[in-house]
């Protein structure tokens, strides 16, 4: 997608669609879900904590927070959320995974002792930055968010090591490591936008999620602008 298209569409991002607040769930099994809920509420979205399959009904989007991917995977299985989330995503619900959440979204992740959601055609390497720099902060260029760099907080973060043909990089580190990617209405960030005051990634996700409500062909942030 052309850089300009991203930025223009981003300005159209709102926490509502046709006057109705965007309904965004945050998976609240473990990890920093409360921080995501706070940002969404600040933006005016209708934010819901999700712990049970029935709480997925009517959501425009779902955020899988950072935390411990093995723990969240275990709880997704125990609370029988895997298939319902996959089904809602297939029907058009947007899903965004941050850090551990990105690991759970990935089709392939090393050292995950059980199945994640496997929704997005990316490969991630868990805890890829090693002990010496297992946490760091860096200003990233994210063309989709406009010209101002985004301050990205990486905490024992994964590396996105492969993007399938339908996925695109939204941001990369200086060495080329992909830090954020998108595939249709799926979004993966290796870092934690919910831990900064910059809500542009959440606004971007709201714009992506609003696509599920837009009539065909009028989606604000289409990945296939043909
Ligand atoms: N290292 C964690 C994992 O592998 C992710 C850390 C995080 O979400 N900040 O699940």
Highlighted features:
single chain; 226 residues; alpha/beta; Rossmann fold; seven-stranded mixed sheet; three-stranded mixed sheet; 6 helices; 29% strand; globular; disordered N terminus; binds glutamine
Write up this protein.
- With 226 residues, the protein is of the alpha/beta class.
- The protein has a single domain (3-210), classed as Class I glutamine amidotransferase (GATase) domain (Rossmann fold), CATH 3.40.50.880.
- 24% of the residues lie in helices and 29% in strands.
- It is built from six helices and 14 strands.
- It has a seven-stranded mixed sheet with strand order 4-3-5-6-14-13-12.
- The longest helix has 11 residues, at 200-210.
- The chain starts with a helix and ends in a 16-residue tail after the last helix.
- Residues 66-69, 99-100, 103, 126-127, 155-156 line the site of glutamine.
SSE string, helix = H, strand = E? HEEEHEEHHEHEEEEEEEEH
CATH fold descriptor:
Rossmann fold
Low-pLDDT residue spans:
1-9
Per DSSP E runs of 2 or more residues, the count of β-strands stands at 14
Binned strand content? 25-35%
Task: Tell me the span between the first and last alpha carbons.
Answer: 10 Å
Shape: globular
Structurally, the number of domains stands at 1
* Major sheet description: 7 strands, mixed
By helix and strand content, what is the structural category?
A: alpha/beta
Name given to the CATH architecture: 3-Layer(aba) Sandwich
Q: Strand order within the widest sheet?
A: 4-3-5-6-14-13-12
Q: Spell out the CATH superfamily.
A: Class I glutamine amidotransferase (GATase) domain
Attached small molecules: glutamine
According to CATH, what is the class? Alpha Beta
- Rg result: 16 Å
Helical fraction: 10-25%
């Amino acid at each position: 997608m052309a850089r300009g298209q991203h930025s223009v569409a981003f300005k159209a991002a709102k926490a509502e669609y046709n006057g109705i607040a965007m309904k965004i769930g945050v998976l609240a099994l473990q990890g920093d879900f409360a921080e995501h809920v706070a940002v969404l509420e600040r933006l005016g979205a209708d934010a819901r904590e999700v712990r049970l399959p029935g709480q997925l009904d009517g959501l425009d989007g779902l955020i899988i927070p950072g935390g411990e991917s093995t723990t969240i995977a275990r709880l997704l299985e125990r609370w029988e959320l895997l298939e319902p989330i996959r089904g809602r995503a297939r029907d058009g619900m947007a899903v965004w995974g941050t850090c551990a959440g990105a690991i759970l979204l990935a089709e392939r992740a090393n050292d995950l002792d059980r199945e994640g959601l496997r929704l997005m055609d990316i490969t991630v390497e868990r805890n890829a930055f090693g002990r010496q720099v297992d946490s760091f902060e860096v200003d990233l260029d994210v063309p989709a968010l406009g010209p101002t760099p985004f301050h990205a907080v990486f905490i024992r973060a994964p590396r996105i090591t492969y993007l399938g043909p339908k996925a695109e990089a939204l941001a990369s580190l200086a060495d080329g490591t992909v830090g954020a990617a998108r595939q249709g209405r799926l979004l993966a960030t290796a870092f934690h936008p919910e831990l900064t005051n910059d809500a542009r990634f959440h606004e971007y996700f709201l714009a992506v999620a609003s696509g599920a409500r837009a009539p065909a062909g009028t989606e604000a942030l289409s990945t296939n602008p043909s």
